[in-house]
Design a protein that fits this description.
By secondary structure, the protein is of the alpha/beta class. It has 11 helices and 14 strands.
Amino acid sequence: MAAIVARALVKHFSQEIKAVDGIDLDIPEGQVFGFLGQNGSGKTTTVRMLTTLLKPTSGSAEVGGVDVLAHPERIRRSVGVAMQEVGLDEVQTGRELLTLQARLFDVPGPVARTRAGNLLDVVGLAGDADRPLKGYSGGMKRRLDLACALIHEPRIVFLDEPTTGLDPITREAMWRYVEDLNKGGVTFFLTTQYLEEADRLCDDIAIMDRGQIVAKGSPEALKSSIGTDAITLGLGSAEDAGLAEPLLRRFEGVDSLQVQGAQVILYLKNGAAAVAPLVLALAEANVKVEDLRLRQATLDDVFLRATGHHLETGDQGQGRL
């Protein structure tokens, strides 16, 4: 059975603002599904619709076989959700909040306390568990919010950029915990701006851009779809890149290229054999190459080809669509 299904899902905030513009999803149980995209691409709006926090403009969706419009209360009781906006009662301690959250989901008291202790260890807050939340930093509150989403052991979990703002050690701990839960059959819907996170955790990825899914598949399949090596050329200026572009487009074996300021990225088969003649051709055209890198295609290349721009990461926090 599919854990999450969406058909022609749309959310328009106005005639001009089309946050989600007709997407289809079919996510099997037990999968880690990644939504990859920049701020404003429609990732968070999609999560809000699937978790009943926003009503779709049109289309349909089911989570765990339950219609999001017909039975929103059933979905809210059964899924775990950690959104970007963290709203926590700062009078309580971390342990108290987690225990209360578990009790709200009818977890028995002793079990709630045990789970709270375990999750506080996972998110690196065991030493601060009995401090009031008003003394927590933003990153600590973010980690506690993640624990709250998992305390009732839901079978479907929505994580909206869960490791944004976390230090590398805590991020790695969260990745391991997601992997362990997923091995036990938990389905994750994960939005992220981190390519490494998507590549490591996700069985399938959908790339969102301007409210639409522009590419979809497993990380390996998406990278294989490029079918070429990538050569990144650092030239002297954007003007040099503009001069070099027509020459490079005619260069033998070039499948496609992208110009980003003074940088040109070429996709071509057998990139190693092309390096020397490529540099020679540019030298003859009086274009100086300041930097050259040859590599295999990555998810960043997939994102660039699908959207026309690189994935820019950041911890901006608010204003997401």
